Amino acid sequence: MLRLSLVNLILVGVLLLNLFMLGTSRIRGLIQAAALQGVALGAILLLMADHRDWNTALLAIATVVLKGSVIPRMLHRALREAQIKREVEPLIGFVPTMLLGAVGTLLSIAFASGLPLAPQHQELLIVPASFSTVVTGFILLTTRIKAITQAIGYLVLENGIFIFGMLLVDAMPFLVEIGVLLDVFVGIFVVSIIIHHIHREFASLDTRRLASLKE
Amino acid sequence: MLLLALIALPVLAAAVAAALASDRQRPVVLPVAAAGHLALTLAAISARSPSSLGGWLALDPPGRLVLLLLSSLFAICAVYAVGYLRYRQELSNRVFVPCLLGFLGMTTLVVCAQHLGLMWVGVEAATLTTAPLIYFNRTPRSIEATWKYLLVGSVGIALALLGSFFLAYASLGGDSSLLFSDLLLRADRMDRSWLRAAFVLLLVGYGTKMGLAPMHTWKPDAYGEAPGVVGALLAGGLTNCAFLALVRVFHICAAAGEGAWAGRLLVFFGLLSIAVAAVFMVGQRDFKRMLAYSSIEHMGILVLGVGLGGNGIFAAMLHMLNNGMTKGVLFLSAANIHRAFASKSIDQVRGAMRRVPLSGTLFLFGFFAITGSPPFGPFVSEFLIVSRALAADRFLVAGGVLLLLLVVFVGMGRTVLAMVQGLPSPDAERTRYHDGLLTGLPVVVSMAIVLLLGLHIPSPLAALLRDAAAYLERIP
To answer: Rounded mean pLDDT of B428-449?
Structure first.
């Protein structure tokens, strides 16, 4: 029981981080919040596994290292090299996006309550927390104009999906989970290279300049 | 072992290509690896049921078809790429060639993967290997296209992952194997609300990768800016892998008794894609973007065929081969025309049949083939899909499709005829490109295949097609 309430406590932290990310105006803060979420995912993974074996431990370590340290560092470097302003620059204001996030969270809880859960997952907040994080990532992706904040949005979206994966930690074989993590890592890697090129070509990371291709 | 070799060969070749120092020698790795891959593919298709890694890798009947198409199309593109890269010696191909080979390896993984998660990993990896390919020309426009491709594609693929998780959870903690054979067997015991939510997410996710409307926004940009050979591989290879993924998920839904519901969704997205493509093809002045819309249209026809069920599944499988090969013809010959005029707008491109007679003629034939004119392959498969709609009493669907196909024919025809006919305008730039053996012969070969598919389907291929359709209609 203690284990499950601990998981729920961390998930509440994840939800609060979501709201923080929608409200913060600093890119640095955004990256740190996403990194903190990555560490939280590793912790939940350790708590959720029924049989704590080497594979789960290894996966948890890989999660914390990749999502909590390597990827944030790459994003920080992209931020430094591109020498962009540190503000987030939203398309719509911070208060409206936070409201949007709150509504998204409420809808997630409503939607999640309509889906049946296995008996051992009844008490957990995993499904609403996962949906809410996915929604947060989606809002960040669509309402922030810098390429780097869009990349962070994608990272948060992936975090949300990863949270859902916790329900399947005994079902999803180790190899696939590692593959998923690695794909996210390589994805962010490719994205940060492209960010670098966007900056070089356009002297800006403003994706509104990426608008010459249209009908 | 055979399947492992099939995936490992291109990946090893990519490593070799990356290690080679000379930009002139590196492209030669492509046809060598492609020939090896094609030989292994033929061996794997004729072997009874190769499988590796405890059933994680195996060839199901629809997989055989996609693998055959993928390997043949890659062989055609590999020869073409050697010729293409000779014209582009000012650009380093150090990333381009290994990424092409990596693309072949990862798409082969998608085809052979019999595990829901492994297949997702393959689609994601294939997407990532294609991003540098789209960016090959290093122009601001190609960066923009790559960024949109990565962003839209990654979000789509992320939703497909969530859908895969839903599908895994639909058994509610019961048997949790994610092998397709096991998923099919326990489909009727799955929870319906999770299954339906999973199908919607997977349809949106893999539909984004296929380029179904309204998730198609990356496609005109990516196909417009990528080199033609990359466009051919995306439109004939990667999109069909995503289609295969979608068909496998649809099969699970059908096994759970939700086939009618899922089929309605497929018909809806199919018709919407054809309609959106038709609207944007009329008056299109950029001929590479026009081909992108044509790809959206034909992805719509594919899911429409599957959604109609019955004989429509067979027709969709045949249409996948026809469309893939015809897209090879169109993208490769369009790229030749693009190179000869240094422009992809019909404002500059006139009289392509005079300046590059072979490519101009092939492009014209390709246009007739893709719009469903006899005697080419797509005519047969489109005819079968429409007659399936009529046989199922879906007269509105059949009539709508025929009307939209007519709009596409007229819209595309105006652009294509303006390009190939007449005389090149005197102020149009004359580049040093002429049709050559390496950039001409591969297109002729794929055109010949399209013609053959329309006149007579060889009996081994017909057997493969029947097996695939029977497999997808069978509910275990």
So the answer is: 90
Joined tokens for residue A163: 């949270």
The tokens of B266 are what? 């497929």
Quick one: pLDDT at residue B174?
66
Burial B426-454 (b: 16+ CB within 10 A, else e): eebeeeebebeebbbbbbebbbebbbebb
Count other C-beta atoms under 10 Å from residue A173's C-beta. Answer: 17
- Per the CB < 8 A criterion, the answer to whether B474 and B318 are in contact is no
Q: What is the dihedral of CA B348, B349, B350, B354, to 10 degrees?
A: 130
- Taking the Cβ of residue A162 and every Cβ of chain B, the question of whether any pair is shorter than 8 Å is answered with no
Could you read off the pLDDT of B22-71 as tens digits, one per residue? 888 999 999 999 999 999 999 999 887 777 777 889 999 999 999 999 99
Q: Which of B138, B159, B169, B171 to mutate to test the interface with A (most CBs of A within 10 A)?
A: B169
Rounded CA gap, B366 and A93, in Å? 50
Band of the pLDDT at A50, cuts 50, 70, 90? low
Judged against a pLDDT cut of 80, whether residue B288 lies above it is answered with yes
- Mean pLDDT over B88-117 rounds to 94
Residue-wise pLDDT for A3-40, tens only, equals 889 999 999 999 999 999 999 889 899 999 999 999 99
Residue pair B382/B460 in contact by the 8 Å Cβ criterion: no
**Is residue B144 predicted with pLDDT exceeding 90?**
no
Q: Alpha-carbon distance B69 to B87, whole Å?
A: 27
Most trustworthy range by pLDDT among A80-94, A152-166, A176-190, B423-437: A152-166
Estimate the crossing angle of helix B239-255 against helix B287-308, to 10 degrees: 20
pLDDT value at B21 more than 70:
yes
Average pLDDT over residues B413-428: 87
Q: How many residue pairs bridge chain A and chain B with CB atoms within 8 Å of each other?
A: 115
What's at A134, amino acid-wise? Answer: V
Nearest Cα of chain A lies from the Cα of B438 at a distance, in angstroms, of 31
SS3 B88: coil
* Concatenated DSSP letters of B389-408: HHHTT-HHHHHHHHHHHHHH
Residue pair B46/B206 in contact by the 8 Å Cβ criterion:
no
Q: Do B140 and A201 touch (CB under 8 A)?
A: yes
> Domain boundaries in chain B?
2-473
* Chain B closest-CA separation from residue A149 CA (Å): 12
- Cα separation of A168 and B291, whole Å? 42
Parallel, antiparallel, or unpaired for β B57-58 and B51-52?
A: antiparallel
Q: Which residues of A touch B176 (CB under 8 A)?
A: 168, 170-171
- Which chain A residue has the Cα nearest residue B148? A210
Environment class of A85 (CB within 10 Å of its CB; exposed 0-12, middle 13-18, buried 19+): exposed
CA A184 to chain centre: 11
Residue of B124, B158, B194 lying closest to A157 (CB–CB): B158
Chain A contact present for B161, CB below 8 A: yes
pTM comes to 0.94
**Six-digit token string for B356:** 């590059």
What's the confidence (pLDDT) of residue B321?
97
B23 touches chain A (CB under 8 A): no
Q: Does the distance separating the beta carbons of A175 and B158 come in below 8 Å?
A: no
For chain A, the domains span 2-209
CA distance B224 to chain A (A): 9
d(CA B135, CA B221): 11
